[in-house]
Structures are given as C-alpha cells and as structure tokens.
C-alpha cells in the first residue's frame, strides 16, 4: 500500500524538480505521522524505517532529516489532539432537561 502511495505522490510532483521532491517527501511524512500510536515507536518499527528509507532513496533526502521531520509532525499532531478534545455531544443532549418547565426556564 505504501508503495502505491509513494508512486502516486512522486508522479503528482514529478514536474516540479527539487521543490517537487521536497513536497512529495512532506506529503508522505504527513501520511506516516497519522499512523496509530502502537506503530509510532520511532526507530523501533522496522516498517516505518523501511518506508523512510524508500522516501530517502527516491527523493535524495538524508534519512536523518526525514526522521527528525517525522518526529516534528507527530508532536504537532499530538499537540493538536490535546488542545481540542472531542466532546461527547450525545451525552450533553441526553443530560439536558426537557419538558415544559425546562423550556420556560430557557426562555
């Protein structure tokens, strides 16, 4: 699946030269940053390491730079998730009082 994504992204930015290579790598790293937490252990997951090696070879970027950028993207992703917790709106709706007295109080 990753190979297909790699090919599509590479062809998408192929005509843009060095900037296209950078954009391709950035898009693929953003894709990898979305991996589930149990796969996220940087440097411990051979699959992630293999994917980063493929990106490095394909776009002529140092693998260490890719690892550093992936860590940044994951940290940003975690910050965004912590900053805006998802509320359970169904619980709030169910807990809201209903009936004629509640409607009169709200008015």
Characteristics:
single chain
Task: Write a structural description.
The chain has 107 residues and is an all-alpha fold. The protein is built from 6 helices and no strands.
Question: TL;DR?
Answer:
The chain is an all-alpha fold and 107 residues long.
SSE topology:
Elements: H1 2-12, H2 17-33, H3 46-59, H4 63-83, H5 89-95, H6 100-106
Helix pairs in contact: 1-2, 2-3, 2-4
Mean pLDDT: 74
The overall number of domains is: 1
User: Which percent bin holds the helix content?
Assistant: over 70%
Question: How large is the count of helical segments?
Answer: 6
| Measured distance between first and last alpha carbons | 56 Å
How much of the sequence lies in strands comes to under 5%
Order of helices and strands: HHHHHH
* Shape, principal axes of CA atoms: globular
Cα-based radius of gyration, to the nearest Å: 22 Å
Count of DSSP E strands?
0
Structural class: mainly alpha
Low-confidence stretches: 83-96
- Summarize the main sheet: none
